[in-house]
Amino acid sequence: MQDVTDLPFMRVMETFGGPDYYVTEYFRVYENSPINKYILRSITENQTGKPVFAQMIGQDVESLVKTAQQLMEHPVAGIDINLGCPAPVVCRKDAGGGLLRKPEKVKAILGRLRDSVQGRFTVKTRIGYETEEEFDALLEIFKSFEIDALAIHGRTVKERYQTPVHPERIKQAVEVMHCPVIANGNVVDVETGRAYLEQTGAAGLMIGRGAIRSPWIFEQLKASCEGREVKQILRRDLHGYIRLLFEAIAQERTRYEERRHVNKMKKYLVYIAQGLDAEFEYQIRRVQSAQDFHTVCDAFLLSEQLLPQRPSETSKLFCGFNALLG
Prior knowledge:
- By secondary structure, the protein is of the alpha/beta class.
- The chain has two domains: 20-206, Aldolase class I (TIM Barrel); 235-301.
- It has 14 helices and seven strands.
- It has helices at residues 7-15, 37-44, 61-71, 88-91, 103-116, 135-143, 167-176, 190-200, 209-213, 217-225, 235-252, 258-272, 278-284, 290-301; strands at residues 22-28, 52-57, 78-83, 121-126, 149-153, 181-184, 204-206.
- Strands 1-2-3-4-5-6-7 form a seven-stranded parallel β-sheet.
- Helix 8 (190-200) links the parallel strand 6 (181-184) and strand 7 (204-206).
- The protein is globular and about 55 Å long.
């Protein structure tokens, strides 16, 4: 997730157990585009001990090939192409999810990248641009290339994040693809994650927003799948996570700028606040100083009260997840 799941965020995730694999923010690729040095640090300075895939987004075939070759000079676990980002500014450029409107272009990109990537090559997609019925044709394209994994966000581009996912489409991919299929979208806790796996037969889960909200989700899912006790999280635990994230991000900056730093933290807090007190979200969105930021967090989170397992079903950031639970 751009400007959110960066190197300091990865380091913080790892202190809570972390995922099995990380994926970088996307490298924007266009004609003569340089490699983003800050995102590259998520690969070259990766100290998590976990593999990191380099994610690209763009639509110029030759530039994508060139960038992939440059990224392979670094210790990447593989190269990933983003065909799923629904951001309007991306789709207008026929990149990310916008590429799903141009199947022939998708074929050209996947073919050239598969030929040029010496190692693991993975694809992240949605199930269509306008409607889920587009997925049948897209799946035929994906099946025709020897990709090493296919991560599927179970919504169309047009659905963005405002609907339930379509697990039956991911199950369809599991049944025909020759590579592992990873389910993405609407995993907010152990129950939604387990339900998604059971309904799709996917080889694993990709979690973004749910991990920002709760960095414990990876270890909780592993514990549940292995029959171990699942850790219960308190508000005080969340307070500690926010403090750790605040410090990790501050250490990244050569020159600390308080206002800029607080605004960066708000990008995380809009996800973290979902499911908590409405007043907490209201106040944290309006803080201007580090002192006010910590004061609000202290007032609402320094307690032994259990955290809600899930955000509100009416949240604008987490929608439709209850459909996975039947």
